[in-house]
Amino acid sequence: MKRRYTIPIFLIIFCLWTWSVFIEPYFLLNEKHVQVVCKNFPKGFENLKIAVVSDIHIGRGPLERMRFKKIVDAVNANSPDIILFLGDYTNGYYYQTSLSPHTLINALSQFNAKITKLGILGNHDAIYGVNKIKNGLSKSGITPICNSNQKVSTPYGDFYVAGIADPQTLSYSYSSALKNIPKNAPTIFLTHNPAVVREIPHKVDLVLAGHTHGGQLRLPFIGNIFPLKNTPRKLTSGLNNFNNHTIYTSMGLGTSRFPIRFYCAPEFTILKIIPKN
Prior knowledge:
- The chain has one domain: 4-Layer Sandwich (Purple Acid Phosphatase, chain A, domain 2), CATH 3.60.21.10.
- The protein is built from five helices and 14 strands.
- The mean pLDDT is 92.
- The termini are far apart.
- The strands form three sheets. Strands 1-14-2-3-4-5 form a six-stranded mixed β-sheet, with helices on one face.
- By secondary structure, it is an alpha/beta fold.
């Protein structure tokens, strides 16, 4: 009886392992479309196409290179007006493969946006090297936002994108990130880690976060299997209301520590802002 079940069980485990290690993380890519109603954005902003790209974790391996090309092609195929990057461009830990700054610049330069590209730093980027990442972003046409904000001009009016440094690895300042933004000005706030949404000092229209990878291991109807440190379960992925803020957490595109994804395919987001009035 034991032998009768040994082979089927082994085959099931092998198939699940193969899927979650080799198939889902590299060959699947979801394009998620999200609409968010924001009261401070003027009429016409619903015509803007904003791509949200998080946790790319670019690497040197052939599967990582293939995945990155797939990501770039899919994002660019949408002809986004604006691309917002939520950090973790690299695999920053010493025991993981990291790219040279030159290779990183060449890679990120492939993303195209009609108006602008803006990005914050993640915890892996801090470990890789803050100045290396900032310089790499700038040279690839991405404006780094680190405890600062940027006014973005569009055919439908102006809005602000504010961002903080990664709270796990760097010194972050909300006051600096929101400095000189006029009251009630339409504002999108970028943070790598969604856990800090409870600390944002005053109302912004929308918070965008990454870092969680959706938990990487998920089950239908349950969500992420393992709890994430300091992060409420509802903030692991998707659009939520939390602490008087509207926050969207991307499940991201890469993996970290353990190169595995199950029921948690890599995703990027096409965001549409719907003015309330």
